[in-house]
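Just wondering, can you check both lines?
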Amino acid sequence: MEIRLPQLGEGADSGTVVSVMVSVGDKVRKDQTLLELENQKAVAPIPAPAAGTVAKIHVKQGDVVSVGQLLMTLQADEAEPHQRLGTSSAARTVPPRSPVGQLAAQRVTSSSGFPPPASPSIRKMARELGVDLSKVPGSGHGGRITPEDVRHYLEALQNGAVQKHASLPVTDFSKWGPIRRKPFTPTRQAIARAMEDSWRNIPHVTLFDEADVSGIQTLIKKHGPAYEKKGLRLTLTGCVIRVLSSLLKKHPVFNSSLDENSKEIVLKDYVHIGVAVDTEAGLLVPVLRDADKKNVSEISRALQDLAEKARSRALAAGDLQGGTFTISNQGGIGGGHFTPIIHRPEVAILGLGRAKLREGKQLLPLAVSFDHRVLDGADAARFMRDLVEALEGFPESEVAG
C-alpha cells in the first residue's frame, strides 16, 4: 500500500516533514501517526490508513512534499500489497519522465496551433499556480495533461531551484572568529516563504498614527478583576479587535481579497481576524472567527484559547486559514511604529506598538500596511481616522457586565 500526501485543506498543496514517527520494519495500527507535516505553520499528523508493517520510508525530516507525493510504503495486514491508497489498483503505464533540467526548459508544441489538451480543472489549477501548460508534457491519451504531469513539472522546477540555490557561494564566517549554528527550522522556513511571497507580490504602503488609549487603559484596570474571576484577561488587543470588527463593516474593502485570475475584488461579509502570536517556534497567526458577532468577553476567551493552542503547537491547519484581516501587537514586548507585512491573500494588516505616556496621554502607535493595488492612500487615511476616533471614544458598556 502506497501512502501518499492527501489534500490537507483549501489551498494546502504542500508541507514540510517535521518528524517521522516510525522506522522500517515497525508494526503499526490503523490511525497511528506515521509522520507529522507542517503546513501553513500548523502541524498535522498523517495517520496509517490500515494496520501493517512499514516497508519503506520515502521522505525524511525537512523534506518539502506536495499533494500526491509518495510518503511511505506499508505492507498492509488485510489488503493487497500493491494496492495504492486513494487510487485504483489497476496497473497504469506511465511514460518516462524528462530529466529536471530538460523538463523545465522544454516547450510542447502543437501542429494544430491549439493549446495543449487538458481539462478545465487542470487549466484552472495551472492559472492559479502560474504554470504555462505549453511547457508540461502530457502523459494521458493523445498527450492530454494530467494532474500528475503538473505536479511533476512543479517538482522539477522546485528541484532545479534547490540545485541552483545549493550552488551559491557560502561564506566561511569562521575566518573572522568563533561562530555557532542553529537549524533554520521547518516552521521558520514556512514563515520565510510566506513573508517572501507577500513582500514580492504585494505593493506595500504603511500609514502611521497614534491614538490616546487612556480611557481604554482605565477601563481595563476597573473591569479587569471581574474578568479574572471568570478566568479571562481583559486586554488592549481584545478591545482593539472589538473596534476593528465594526470598522471592517464600515470599510469593507479592508476586509477583502484580490482575485487576480478574475480581476475582481472579493468583498467578504464575514470578519475573521488573524492574531499574530509570538511562540518559541516563531510567529504564528491563528484566526479568530466571526469577531463581529462576539463581545469583548467572548473575544477575550477566544484569544486565550488560540494563544494557548499556538504556544503548545496544537493548532490545526484550519485554525490558520480563512482570515480576512490581521492584527500584530508587539506592545507587550516593546517598540513603537513598525511596518507589518500583509498576510496574503488579505489586503491590509494593523500593527500596534507599546503605548507611551506623553503629555498626560497614553499614546498607542498604530501602523496600517495596505495593498496599493486595491486601496489608495485616501482609503487608508479615512480608515485610520475612524480607527483613532473609535479607540479614543471606546465606551464602557463594551466591557461592563
Remarks:
- The first helix runs from residue 100 to 105.
- Residues 274 and 326 are 4 Å apart (CA to CA).
- The domain at 112-164 is CATH 4.10.320.10 (Dihydrolipoamide Transferase).
- The first strand starts at residue 2 and ends at 4.
